[in-house]
Each structure stands twice: as C-alpha cells, then as structure tokens.
Amino acid sequence: MRKTPLTAPLIDQNPITVQILGICSALAVTTAMATALTMSLALIAVLVASSVVISLIRRHIPASIRLVVQITIIASLVIVADQVLRAFAYEMSQRLSIFVGLIVTNCLVLGRAESYAMRNPVWPSLLDGLGNGLGYALVLLIVAFLRELLGTGALFGVQVLPTVAAGGWFQPLGFMLLAPSAFFIIGGMVWAIRSLRPGQAEPDEFVLRTGRQEVAR
Amino acid sequence: MAEGTLWRRFLGLPNESRIKTLGVAFLVALVCAASVSVTSVLLKPRQQAHLVAARAANLAAMVAALPGLDEILRASGAQSLQTVLVDLRTGMIERGADAAAFDYVAAQTDPAQSTALPPEADTAGIGRRPNRAPVYLLRGPEGLALVVLPVYGTGYQSTIRAFLALEGDLNTIAALTIHEQGETPGIGTRITNPEWTGLWAGRQVANAAGDVVIRVVRGTATSAFEVDGITGATRSSTGVSNLVGFWLGAEGFGPFLARLKAGEE
Lengths: 217, 265
Known about the structure:
A: 217 residues; mainly alpha; two-stranded antiparallel sheet; 7 helices; B: alpha+beta; six-stranded antiparallel beta sheet; 22% strand
C-alpha cells in the first residue's frame, strides 16, 4: 500500500506506539470506551483544525514567535472543543474533567503543527492531522477496549461479561482500571508492532558488552 | 483600495521584520480571542441549563441520601421539598412570591436585587448579598424536619456553590453538598469528596450563647463545632468554612433561622 499522510500514521508512523507522544491522556481516559471515543473525537477535531489553520498562514508566521502562534491557535481550538462538549455532552465533559483542556499540552498536536503543517500545503496537512488523530484514536480505543472489558466486564457501559457480583462467572480485574495497566497494554502493543515490523525498532543507544571483561586495576 | 494595498504591503514584509512579527502576533491573538469569546457566549445558555439540571439532581440526591427523610416524605404525602422565598434583610418568608421562577444566580449580582457588603462583614468573599434567597423546607409529623439553604462563596480560585441542610432543631447540620466549584483539579476539588462533606453531618452550628462557631480547623476536629481540614487544600476547605459561617450568620440566613426557631414565620 502506498504511504500517504492519511494512512502512514495509523501503524507505520503511529504517534503513540512509534513516536511515544500523547501518552498522558492515553493513560487517563482509557478506563472506558465512551470516554476514549469522546477524547479521540475532540483530539481529531483540534488536530485537523489546527493543522489547517497553521498551514494556511504558514508563510506569514515569523520564525521567532512561531511556537507562540501555534500554541495560541491550538489553545483556542481546545477551549472551543471543551465548551462545545460542556454544552452538548455535559455528563461526558464531567467524566473527562480536565483532560480535554489538557489536549493543549499534548505533544502530538504541537508536534504535527511544528513538523508538518508549518511546511506543507493545506490539503496534505489536513490529511496528516486526520491520519495522526485516527492513529491516536486507534490506540486509545484498543487500550480502552481491553481495560473496560477486563476491568468491568462491560463495553460502552453495557455489561457483556456477567460479573461475579451480579451472579455471573467473570471476576473483574481491578488493576485494569488503574493507570499502570495502560502502560503495560501500550508497552505490549509497541512490542508486538516492532516484532512484526522490525524497521521501527531504534538502534540501541548503548550497546551492552558481552563476554569476559577486563577488570581495570 | 488603499486598505488592500496596505494589507498587501503588510503581507509582503519580510517575516522577521518587527512590524510583521508584532502584527501577526496581534492578529492571531485577536482572531483567537474573538472565536473563543463568541463560542463561549453562544453556548452559555445550553451550559447553564445543564448546570441547573445538575443542581436539581444534586438537591434531590442529597435529600434521598439523608436517613429517615424518605419516610417523612411519604408520611407527609409531600412529593418533594417546599420552596419558599426568604427576604434576607428581614428574615421573613415572602408570601405569594413565585419561588420556582426566581432567578437566584441573577439576583446575586443584579444591583437592584442585592446589597453591597462592607469588607469586614463579607467573610464569604461575595461582594454583594442578594436581598432574597430561596429556601427549601420539609415538614414531618413533628413539625419542621429539614431546612435546605443554598450557600455560596469564594474558595481558592472559584466560587463554591453548595446546599447546606439543617435538621429540625436548626442547629445540627444534616448534610453539606457542593454542586459547583472550579478549584484546582485533584487538590481543591477534594472538597466535593463525599468522605469530606460527610464529616459535616451531625456537627453543631452555634454554641450555648447562640454564636455561630462552626468552622473547619487544621488537622483533626476536637469538638462538635469543628470539621477536619483537608491537608493541601487549606484555602478551599477554609473557603467552605467561611461561606457556611457567613450564610448562617447575621448577614446570611441568621435572622430567618432565628424567626423559624422562635416559631414565627
């Protein structure tokens, strides 16, 4: 398959598993599918809009204040997204609490603005934003699927595995609802993807010396 | 025409020139500020409706969680609390006023419906006190069973809004529930933690002399007039302490509660 700005970030250049960006929110909002989906949609909206706007004015942004301009645009878009959520999905905005607002500190958004939208025309930038947003959403939804299913036996709040407490057989893994479990799941995904595509693995920064070592005296 | 050429000349400036840098910064800030403001203003009514619904649900949940109230509600045949409007200047219930239609939040800042507080009396940090406030009453077979007061005040960085429920003796706190605040997430927001608001239940408001002495103390409470403070959230929990003290005092619902206690309404 030909690599385009839209499809490359899904697996080959996935922002979370390859670039290890946006981990903070990936840990925080993935205890349930519903929150992960809302967060993904908010991030996609912000990322696409910021890529388009920054790409539009990229020729007129002075290099000395480019980060300030980018972050101002991103922050405004995040506030708008947060306000829209509060108006149309109040319950969900209460559950997501500050994490929608924290999109502004998500390295993923600023990273795409700085490394792609500043140098490319509007249409590829839009696709790049969308692709990266979808790549982020993909990882978030996989992690949330595992955490909600194993942690509570439910998906999107609907019970699919009958829990012991409700007279069934499934013993929920409380650990899955804690943040470290997301680290393990994302770590497992990184390992699996790099095993299948060895090209993604970085060379070791320090090579372990093996065999007999001369002891300095 | 002249504007067009001016705009073109501005865009044609080298990016590193001082005028262009300042101009771009100003224009970006202007457009961003305008879009944020417009969104905020347009969506305000919808968000407000959600807050009102959340407040009603909160009040209902608080009443439902208090022990014994369900029976009183059933025995008295009342479906819910009775809402009355209280004139805070006199402490009297306003007869014939439509309490349901009263916009309490608007009255808090409307100069025609509120009174400026002198700084030394303004312990809750609210600046102006509304002239009238809604109060929710519940009567059981043995008279007054519950009085719910809507209270608010300044915490560390936001206005904290809460319901304070008093038992029939008007001196024992039945419950405190905070339904709106914008304190530091994870730190000041612990004032909404049920484990902390639960500490308020059963506390005494006034001492034998009739002075309102209830307050939040640092560390652990040592008497029935004290509530444990929250370590790390001193300013937020003190804010709650101050606003409870203010609204139970002479500038708040004090005169109304005194009248209620004396048996006249």
